[in-house]
Amino acid sequence: MCEVAARWTQAVNVQAGGQADSAVWTVPNVVSMLRLALVPVFAVLIVVGEDVWALVVLAASGATDWLDGVLARRLNQVTKLGQMLDPAADRLFILVTLIGLTWRGVIPWWVLAVIVARDVMLAFLVRPLARRGYGPVPVTFVGKAGTFALLYAFPLLLLAAMPGGVGAVAHVIGWAFAWWGIGLYWLAGFQYVRHVRRLVTDDRGEAQTEGAA
Predict the structure, then answer these.
(1) Is the pTM of this model over 0.70?
(2) Residue 195 domain-assigned?
(3) Quick one: 86 and 114 in the same domain?
(4) Mean of all residue pLDDT scores within the chain
């Protein structure tokens, strides 16, 4: 196995706490499923204009994003489903929240375009990884930090639409989180692309060496 592939496998194993099992109904998985269940709830609330309840749902989503990872490590309940469910729930909630807030005019359309473009870029990495038998891209600290920043930015930006001093403060802090989140989100995306590119290049070199031998 090439050096980059070995590091890739090690990163996945470390992220999984050494080994992931096939259990489904674990506490962290239930928390992640709850976050997924909140997605349509938020969509309805934002459409009908129930901003206070939408704000509560956003805050709850941000809390569960932190909670499921902590529970998985502390309870030793890291599962294969959880490794896929957690980032999938994050991305889906971010996408639906962006669409809802853009539709309401809370954030400009370019924020939606910039964040979606990054996920579209990463979608092109799935095929070369799958063809070589590698699992999903291991989540990095930068990527998780970017996700956290965005999930904290959204409720603040929704709160910023309210009149008065609270809205003004929320506007400043919310956009600070949003800019940091976008920057970290894209930085992590470029890191993923670089790692996959090196992985594919090293695999090809190793295959050519074995063929020549």
Answers:
(1) yes
(2) yes
(3) no
(4) 78
